Amino acid sequence: MKRKGQIKKFFSVLMILFIFGACKKTPQIEPDLALQLPELTQEGKNTAGCYLNNEIFVANVEPNTGGAIALWASFDEVTNFFRMQATMETANDRLESIKMKSYLTDTIGTYPIFLNEGEEYEGYVDYSGANCYYLHDENNLGMIEIKFIDKEQNIISGLFSMDLINTDCSSNAVLKITGGRFDIKY
């Protein structure tokens, strides 16, 4: 009788282990760091990113010789003219670029994207063969907010946002760029 009770206990424990062992724990998915905006830093880390119509854009291009670069900027300390271009290489090797420029009258502060009168200036280019260009809208230029500038170390950091327009490229005539940030050496 005692043996029968031990066998029952053994099979009960075995059954419990089988039931709980058969349950699969949902695996934790690690966030893909390449699909996150870079931190807002002020160290000249040469980073830039934003949301393009709510999709993440992070400046990143595979190292190459003589081709596209991920991030380029210049700041003329005499005229206070700032320009930046960030380029992302997508998973299917397509290149996309965001461009902006502005005069920074006081350095720290918020400034409109600059356009010469009558100028059509590309704010976004998709080099996928369709060569889709979105232009800065002269009625809604967008903003660059400079959070930090160090003229001795040649570092400039800040935020940006803008709406770009194109009625020819796709069903999206407006491209909304939000949550933009950059930390670059110029």
In the residues, how many domains can be counted? 1
Query: How many helical stretches?
Result: 1
Overall structural class, as computed from helix and strand content, comes to: mainly beta
SSE arrangement, N to C: HEEEEEEEEEEE
Instruction: Tell how many strands the DSSP assignment holds.
Output: 11
Low-pLDDT runs of 5+ residues are 13-34
User: How much of the polypeptide forms β-strand, as a percent range?
Assistant: 35-45%
Distance between the termini: 86 Å
**Biggest pleated-sheet summary:** 11 strands, antiparallel
Q: Estimate the mean pLDDT confidence.
A: 81
Please compute the radius of gyration using only Cα atoms. Answer: 26 Å
Overall, the morphology is globular
How much helical structure, as a percent, in the residues?
10-25%
How would you sum up this structure, described in words?
This protein has 186 residues and is mainly β. The protein has one domain. It is 11% helix and 42% strand. Strands 1, 2, 3, 4, 5, 6, 7, 8, 9, 10 and 11 form an eleven-stranded antiparallel sheet that branches. It starts with a helix and ends with a strand. Mean pLDDT is 81; it is low at 13-34.
Question: Could you give a quick summary of the protein structure above?
Answer:
With 186 residues, the protein is mostly beta strands.
List keywords for this structure.
single chain, 186 residues, mainly beta, 11-stranded antiparallel β-sheet, 11 strands
Topology:
Layout: H1 2-22, E1 47-52, E2 55-58, E3 71-76, E4 81-89, E5 95-103, E6 109-112, E7 122-126, E8 132-136, E9 143-150, E10 155-165, E11 174-185
Antiparallel strand pairs: 1-2, 1-11, 3-4, 4-5, 5-7, 6-9, 7-8, 8-10, 9-10, 10-11
